[in-house]
Amino acid sequence: MRHVTVSEAATPVRSAPDMQGAHPAAADYLAIDNIWKSFGDFLALKGVSLSIKDGEFVCFLGPSGCGKTTLLRAIAGLDLQTLGTIQQAGRDISTLPPSKRDYGIVFQSYALFPNLTIEKNIAFGLENANRPKAEIKARVAELLELVGLSSQAKKYPAQLSGGQQQRIALARAMAVSPGLLLLDEPLSALDAKVRVHLRHEIKELQRKLGVTTIMVTHDQEEALSMADRIVVMNHGVIEQIGTPTEVYRHPKTLFVADFIGETNQFPAKVTDTGRVALGGTDLVCAPHDIAPGSEVTAVIRPVDVIPHSLDGTEQIGTPENLIDVTVDQMEFLGSFWRCRLASPRFGENILVADFSLNAVRRLGIETGGQMRAELPQGRMLVFAKAG
């Protein structure tokens, strides 16, 4: 393995921000300090540092190849880091083999033993630890009840559905009462409805047991619904750490804004008054520290666009950002309408807006119709132009 020094890397080390959100009184349980990982000349991790609280549920989120699974494998000891240290409950585990680390892990494939019954799968780790038979029997029964599969104890994995197999994999990982639970995209092999159901079950199970949990996922909805905090990764570095609300409402980079949720992105320029010049209009935006005259990307989420009638009788929060528009297209998406809005003030840009069924019905919004769209100041974000 080629060891890499910090000076060789093109990307500076990013330290973790102050801890916010869940478990404010809890102690740091896992401390990851300046982790680098190289595969030949390729740097998969570049100075990653963060701390995870005792009992916290943290999601590593990012696109394929961002380094999230590499970081999880380093924590598990399955693929040792090139540089940096990892401490768990005050113990340095940086170079320990997996068998000497205190964790349970669930993989995407579940990895259940097909020739063993469900109860034998769960008991496997306990038997290897030479626990008394009575203790093993009681623990297996307890976990089967906890995951709601007591009646399936004598069955084999092939006789269970994918969702049931996932719950058994979780029970097996928790059998030896590990201090840390690692989940490597545990729901990606399931269909959409089962995923939604299981993510709530996993979160409730984690809360009941109080086990510190790290889950790797590329599914933003999964991370937003399950995590106490989200670690957004890209190209081997941490872009942002925060609660689901923080990373969604207050993204620190254009990548985070774009990756988590839908966005409108418009090329713009910062004016002398700090507004953004977009197409043929100046818009009031959220506070920023970008110099006047700078080329920027203005971002607003479709869900943040507020519809108004043309008569202007409704309350308006940001009158400077109230724009007369034509409804160019409408797409029905079940719980809302996605509308494409055009205006001379946007130039050639099209504004995508998500309106509730009630708003569309109340305002009579229809394709080819006229309306007003408000782009709230606090939701109009500005980022420096990439490159």
Walk me through the topology.
Elements: E1 28-39, E2 42-53, E3 57-61, H1 68-76, E4 83-88, E5 91-92, E6 103-106, H2 118-128, H3 133-146, H4 162-174, E7 180-184, H5 192-209, E8 212-217, H6 220-226, E9 229-234, E10 237-242, H7 244-249, H8 254-259, E11 264-270, E12 276-278, E13 281-283, E14 295-300, E15 306-308, E16 322-332, E17 336-342, E18 351-356, H9 357-363, E19 370-374, E20 381-384
Parallel strand pairs: 3-8, 3-9, 6-7, 7-8
Antiparallel strand pairs: 1-2, 1-4, 4-5, 9-10, 11-12, 11-14, 12-13, 14-20, 15-19, 16-17, 16-19, 17-18
Helix pairs in contact: 2-3, 2-4, 3-4
Organism: Mesorhizobium denitrificans
Keywords: ATP-binding, Cell inner membrane, Cell membrane, Membrane, Nucleotide-binding, Translocase, Transport
Family: Belongs to the ABC transporter superfamily.
* Strand order, largest beta sheet: 6-7-8-3-9-10
The chain-level structural class is: alpha+beta
* Uncertain residue segments: 1-24
**Span between termini:** 33 Å
Radius of gyration: 25 Å
Order of helices and strands: EEEHEEEHHHEHEHEEHHEEEEEEEEHEE
The chain-level mean pLDDT equals: 89
What's the CATH class label of the largest domain? Answer: Alpha Beta
- Sheet with the most strands, sense and barrel status: 6 strands, mixed
Number of helices: 9
CATH superfamily of the largest domain: P-loop containing nucleotide triphosphate hydrolases
Q: Report helical residue fraction.
A: 10-25%
Instruction: Provide the CATH architecture of the largest domain.
Output: 3-Layer(aba) Sandwich
How many domains comprise the coordinates? 2
Strand content: 25-35%
CATH fold call of the largest domain: Rossmann fold
Shape assignment: elongated
Region (Disordered): 1-20
Keywords: ATP-binding, Cell inner membrane, Cell membrane, Membrane, Nucleotide-binding, Translocase, Transport
Family: Belongs to the ABC transporter superfamily.
Protein name: Putative 2-aminoethylphosphonate ABC transporter ATP-binding protein
